[in-house]
Design the sequence.
């Protein structure tokens, strides 16, 4: 696959993944889909770190767009300098995306391990913090959370989605870093393919 086509393919995968992260983070701010429990004292600290919005979202959306643009025409029009300028920019953007994905992965993983903040015996606390994530395999413990309703399902589902999405983003951004480096040094093979087609 040409470096330009690969960049475009990676970018078209990164953009929806970043939007999924933004949406998941937004839903974490409204437990059970209601704004009743949006008070800062009633949401876990991992939700307020905005890892899905900032890390897996905006910090990955930029390299996604840069990768799509790097897969387009040359930096000065059709074929000029083999699209190396856009590939060079894509290297730095993708490295930035790697950092964002790592941030999202670490915070989301922490959110899964610690568990949600919920009302237990008239006190807002982290009832699963000492279980080191063992509560994920023992659903009978989930009923400890009295309010918000279904908050454990809500948090586990959305944080798991963020973990999965950020792992994919980390992989794709890493692939794009390597692809863009090849694009800078080797150019885009599509230029050669077009030249040969014109000769025929």
Sequence:
């Amino acid at each position: 696959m040409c470096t330009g086509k690969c960049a475009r393919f990676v970018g078209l995968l990164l953009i929806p993944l970043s939007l999924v992260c933004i949406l998941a983070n937004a839903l974490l701010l409204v437990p059970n889909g209601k704004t009743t429990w949006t008070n800062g004292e009633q949401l876990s600290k991992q939700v307020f770190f905005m890892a899905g919005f900032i890390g897996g979202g905006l910090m990955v959306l930029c390299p996604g767009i840069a990768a799509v643009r790097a897969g387009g025409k040359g930096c000065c029009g059709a074929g000029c300098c083999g699209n190396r300028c856009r590939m060079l920019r894509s290297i730095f953007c993708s490295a930035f995306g790697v950092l964002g994905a790592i941030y999202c992965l670490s915070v989301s993983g922490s959110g899964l391990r610690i568990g949600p903040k919920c009302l237990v015996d008239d006190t807002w606390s982290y009832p699963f913090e000492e279980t080191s994530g063992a509560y994920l395999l023992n659903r009978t413990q989930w009923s400890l959370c009295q309010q918000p309703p279904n908050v454990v399902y809500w948090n586990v589902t959305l944080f798991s989605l963020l973990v999965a999405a950020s792992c994919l983003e980390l992989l794709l951004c890493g692939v794009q870093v390597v692809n863009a480096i090849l694009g800078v040094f080797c150019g885009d093979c599509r230029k050669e393919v077009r030249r040969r087609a014109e000769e025929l």
About this structure: The longest helix spans residues 151-186. The helical segments are 3-28, 45-48, 51-70, 84-114, 151-186, 189-199. DSSP finds six helices and two strands in the chain.
